[in-house]
Amino acid sequence: MLLAIALIASFFFAMNIGASGAAASIGVADESDAIPNRQATV
């Protein structure tokens, strides 16, 4: 049971770290108009 909780928590943290990195890179590309807004939202 403890292992399952640890795996779920680690997956949650890993997804948050990945999403944070992706949002930072898309934000820079979007604000500099390197990619269109429609492409950035997809």
Helix-strand topology string = HH
Helix content: over 70%
Distance between the termini: 37 Å
- Our estimate of the beta-strand percent is under 5%
Mean of residue pLDDT?
83
Number of strands: 0
Shape: rod-shaped
How large, in whole angstroms, is the Cα Rg?
15 Å
Low-confidence stretches: none
SSE class: mainly alpha
**Discrete helix count:** 2
Sheet of most strands: none
Protein name: Phosphate transporter
Signal peptide: 1-22
Keywords: Signal
Keywords:
mainly alpha, 0% strand, 2 helices, 42 residues, signal, Phosphate transporter
Question: What do these coordinates show?
Answer:
The chain has 42 residues and is mostly helical. The chain is 83% helix and 0% strand. The chain has two helices and no strands. The longest helix has 30 residues, at 2-31. It is rod-shaped. It starts with a helix and ends with a helix.
Layout of helices and strands:
Layout: H1 2-31, H2 37-41
Entry summary:
Keywords: Signal. This protein is mainly α and 42 residues long.
